[in-house]
Design brief:
single chain; mainly alpha
């Protein structure tokens, strides 16, 4: 089954939520010296997932939210997938916070704008 834009937006939102949960675990267990590496790996996976979903979104959907740095998100996916040896925790962490909040808001708005359309379309 082919994934629709609506599915991919849902995938992005699920990955953003998973990143939030990983960060929350890290904060709750800040005294565990081994946890930061595990949390970073989880975050990288979900950032990769977001980038993959973004790359597959139609241009029309991305055009409806021009303030989102769609190409930067796709490039982060490429960095994680192809240039992992250049990856720095600070680079990954720079994608968290405000950038993820902006992406979440944009995806939620795209889904809400089309709530009345038939399922699977955006």
């Amino acid at each position: 089954m082919s994934r629709t834009d609506r599915h991919r937006l849902g995938d992005i939102l699920a990955a953003v939520e998973a990143i939030d949960q990983a960060e929350a675990v890290a904060h709750r267990h800040s005294d565990d010296g081994e946890l930061p590496e595990v949390v970073l790996a989880a975050i990288q996976f979900h950032v990769f997932t977001i980038g993959e979903a973004v790359k597959a979104l139609s241009a029309g959907v991305k055009d409806r939210q021009p303030g989102v740095p769609w190409s930067d998100i796709a490039r982060m996916r490429d960095l994680i997938g192809h240039h992992y040896y250049k990856l720095d925790a600070a680079i990954v962490r720079a994608t968290l916070g405000a950038p993820l909040d902006q992406l979440r808001t944009a995806c939620e708005a795209l889904l809400a704008d089309d709530a009345d359309q038939s399922p699977g379309t955006v």
